[in-house]
Amino acid sequence: MKKVSFAEFGGPDVLHLIEAEEPRAGPGQVRIAVRAAGVNPFDWRVREGQILAAHPVELPAGVGQDASGVVDEVGEGVDGVEIGDPVFGEGASTYAEFAVLSAWARMPEGLTFEEAAGYPSVVETALRIIHQVGVRSGQTLLVSGASGGVGSAVLQIARDRGITVIGTAGAANQDYLRGLGAFATTYGEGWVERVRQLGRVDAALDLAGSGVIRELVELTGDPQKVISIADLAAPELGVRFSGVAGSMPDALIETVGLISRGRLHIPVEKSYTLAEAAAAHIDSRAGHTRGRRVVVV
Questions:
Q1: Are the C-beta atoms of 193 and 175 separated by less than 8 Å?
Q2: Predicted confidence (pLDDT) per residue in 9-25, tens digit
Q3: 206: helix, coil or strand?
Q4: Do the bridges between strand 86-92 and strand 98-106 make them parallel or antiparallel, or are there none, so unpaired?
Q5: Do 104 and 124 touch, CB atoms closer than 8 A?
Q6: Taking the alpha carbons of 252, 256, 259, 265 in that order, is the dihedral positive or negative?
Q7: Sign of the C-alpha dihedral, residues 134, 149, 118, 277?
């Protein structure tokens, strides 16, 4: 089978499309014929060797953790799923023709494989950080860097829970944020005052790592009401960095429910082939995404 792999840490040029042995589904796992794989910042951070302490990597290594596809092998002890079922979920080395998933759910009706691949990690992250920051119905949540996958999920989940949301993004994405129910404003000079004009901020999330932690603490008045998923230096200012995932099976159940109720939709901004994995990483690292990027197999 074809698989994207890297044998050394480094830039996108270390990614290569190779021939590899097909993985097998172990106990508690399923194997899928991959139709699409989600492109996440986690993927290029692993490739660069940024997060080895939390996620040890044995080289050569595959790339990717989110995927959608058709079940073609069921591991020991697995029930409730059959060969031929369309599923989406989380596994390992998902930029490949076949991949093993350790957490999965049946795809909701009306969702394409391309769309489904973009949901697992971003929705798990969104659910986790909304819970960790402690924002409640009737309060206001500020989301810095709100137009990407996690931001898109945060805005919609927060609105579904009765939370007012303010989102910052580039000028081109203002209407997109408003379409997700947020009060929108641009980042850049004067952004703190623009946020203040939109109302009180009870909690804030840093999704872009653009050096705004001090301002988010200033706006909320409490570093404990700010969480970052992108700025590793956040703890130096008393702000929590959230980088350890919670329960993916629980997140997938909630994802299916939100999608089925019409309360969550994350558009696919751009698709890439397996051979274009390096370009996908370059674009993901550059940011300014509206929704999700995926690799189509």
A1: no
A2: 999 999 999 999 999 99
A3: strand
A4: antiparallel
A5: no
A6: positive
A7: negative
